[in-house]
């Protein structure tokens, strides 16, 4: 009988999550039924949306209950299979969550190709974050050559892809990130035209200098004062993609945006997005992103912690912006 | 030589406008040049947007300067004409503002037909408010039969048309208005399914009861706490038209909306609108509205004050929600 080591939701946080939000558990796995697949997880993805799953507020999917394994996507290796589509040794994308091993229904898994790209990329640039960038930018943002595109959390898993896609699409691209090191990476490696260090202060003045033609598309990952500052620079008929609000996730009182008048006066379109809504079009997005990656046109950076024990600290750091690139936990 | 009596912008308000925001002036009109038309104004329209013209904040059109005649649309009668398109006695829609007479370039005027509808209607149901309702609801709101549509300022010039159009389009329609008399009018005369009196308190509970299926389209004319309360009831993939924010117009500090997370989670599309953007399609809108009016399918109500001297009080009352239906000044 196989054993899995799991991170379980232990205590509901009111503000910021802490290490004791989770606890480690060890569980025996049951025998496989027909259609089941036993997976050894290799990589676990950590993402800002996870904070929302720990809240009991109504959301687009059910939250995690106390005592349940924390949710998340992994890439793993098939150890044993009673599903004809998955042979031992195959690599799969799973929703098994924060654990070293797990049993999934074959219908819930998809194969990934380690020859095409490193396995961990299927949790990042070729996974949900990359697809979020792809569909959010193109479907809602509708960038046109010559537009100015601003993206917050610019060095992150989503923001870095948004900015590079916008750049490829002929836009002037301005990132917002925390700290000089991230900003240097955003401009010199990712190729953005400018990057604003929000920790350096003078956000409004910095933004004004970086967006002389105003802002046509704003891809929002953070919310809060940064959001209102960018909205004040948005042009008539501009588009804002509300993808993430990380600055709000750990607070008890949401930020109050004073930009409703700007929405009216400038006829801004503000639209929320969740990547699941384009599920039927994932193959298109993955193909496009993999193609750009193969051509060397998409740079990508990962931030890795090792071992399931480090997952809580990894998520805490991610929510505080301490990661640098896509945050992963290496499980094996 | 002809004389006009004008309301001139006298003193920039910081919060609410007051009677001394304007002053009455009497001016001699010049002789007509080629292409000019002398108009005697019959009706002056008062609209919430006028508050914005008295601010020196950047907006979509230039504000009024101190000493200038206050802006506004009128319907008037041609007295003298040096433009071939306008004969004396013809009725015209003008932008001559708050004055009894004025000289306009013929190119700035359009003829209106007093046989098709009362002249004042071209400032309301067949004018900017009606067109705002028509294009905002259909182009941005995209109502589908069975949707629940909520409209604030429901008894007003815009709101009353929005709700009736939505009702004709097969929606469940819920208005929000101030006071029982307006609510009675909204349900029994305009035919909305329900109307919520925001002055009666318990807005959230009232709204919940009136929208058992949530809200698919929200046509926003007021802003503030009412806006956030409705947004909290909005369904996945719902649409919000930001048309007016009257609750903010007289305040010095804008309302802080805490609903950005709802925009994300429910993938709400929030979009600002200004009716000018559909200028090229006005004939389509007027034709549609006039057709419904002729069939008796659009009810319409006016609130009239008499004389240019009453215009400032009329606007003050409008901004405080004391009007009941489209607010007009009868000038002759």
Describe, in plain words, how this protein is organized in 3D:
The structure is a homodimer of 332-residue chains. Chain A has helices spanning 50-53, 128-141, 159-168, 180-189, 203-210, 224-231, 246-249, 260-265, 282-294, 311-319; strands spanning 3-9, 22-28, 36-45, 74-81, 91-94, 101-105, 110-111, 148-152, 172-177, 194-197, 215-220, 234-242, 269-272, 302-306, 326-330. Chain A is α/β, with parallel strands linked by helices and 332 residues long. The first copy, chain A, has two domains: 3-122 and 302-330, Quinone Oxidoreductase, Chain A, domain 1 (Alpha-Beta Complex); 128-276, 3-Layer(aba) Sandwich (Rossmann fold), CATH 3.40.50.720. In chain A, the strands form three sheets. In chain A, strands 3, 4, 5, 6, 7, 14 and 15 form a seven-stranded mixed beta sheet that branches. The first copy, chain A, has a six-stranded parallel beta sheet with strand order 10-9-8-11-12-13, sandwiched between helices. In chain A, helix 2 crosses helix 3. Chain A is globular. The A-B interface holds A 52, 58-60, 223, 227, 236, 242-245, 248, 253-258, 260-274, 277 and B 58-60, 223, 227, 236, 242-245, 248, 253-258, 260-274, 277.
Q: What is the 3D shape of chain A? A: globular
- Class based on secondary structure composition and strand pairing of chain A: alpha/beta
Distance between the termini of chain A: 19 Å
Determine the mean pLDDT of chain A.
Answer: 95
Descriptive terms for the model:
homodimer, 332 residues, alpha/beta, Quinone Oxidoreductase, Chain A, domain 1, Rossmann fold, 2 domains, six-stranded parallel β-sheet, 15 strands, globular
């Amino acid at each position: 009988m196989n054993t899995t080591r799991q991170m379980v939701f232990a205590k509901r946080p009111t503000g910021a999550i802490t290490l004791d939000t989770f606890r480690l558990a060890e569980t025996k796995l049951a025998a496989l039924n027909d259609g089941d697949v036993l997976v050894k997880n290799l990589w676990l993805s950590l993402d800002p949306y996870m904070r929302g799953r720990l809240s009991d507020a109504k959301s687009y999917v059910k939250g995690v209950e106390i005592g349940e394994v924390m949710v998340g996507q992994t890439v793993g290796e098939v150890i044993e299979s009673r599903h004809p589509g998955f042979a031992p040794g195959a690599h799969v994308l799973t929703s098994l969550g924060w654990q070293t091993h797990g049993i999934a229904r074959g219908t819930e898994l998809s194969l990934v190709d380690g020859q095409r790209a490193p396995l961990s990329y299927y949790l990042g640039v070729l996974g949900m974050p990359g697809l979020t960038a792809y569909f959010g930018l193109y479907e809602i943002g509708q960038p046109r050559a010559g537009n100015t595109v601003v993206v917050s959390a610019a060095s992150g898993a989503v923001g870095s892809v948004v900015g590079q896609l916008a750049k490829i699409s002929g836009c002037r691209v301005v990132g917002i990130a925390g700290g000089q090191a991230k900003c240097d990476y955003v401009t010199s490696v990712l190729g953005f035209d400018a990057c604003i260090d929000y920790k350096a202060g003078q956000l409004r003045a910095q933004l004004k200098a970086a967006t002389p033609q105003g802002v046509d598309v704003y891809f929002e990952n953070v919310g809060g004062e940064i959001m209102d500052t960018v909205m004040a620079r948005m042009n008539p008929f501009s588009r804002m993609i509300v993808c993430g609000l990380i600055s709000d996730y750990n607070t008890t009182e949401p930020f109050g945006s004073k930009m409703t008048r700007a929405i009216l006066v400038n006829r801004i379109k503000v639209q929320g997005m969740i990547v699941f809504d384009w599920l039927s079009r994932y193959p298109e997005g993955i193909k496009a992103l993999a193609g750009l990656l193969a051509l060397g046109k998409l740079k990508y950076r990962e931030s890795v912690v090792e071992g399931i024990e480090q997952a809580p600290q990894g998520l805490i750091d991610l929510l505080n912006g301490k990661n640098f690139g896509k945050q992963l936990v290496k499980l094996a």
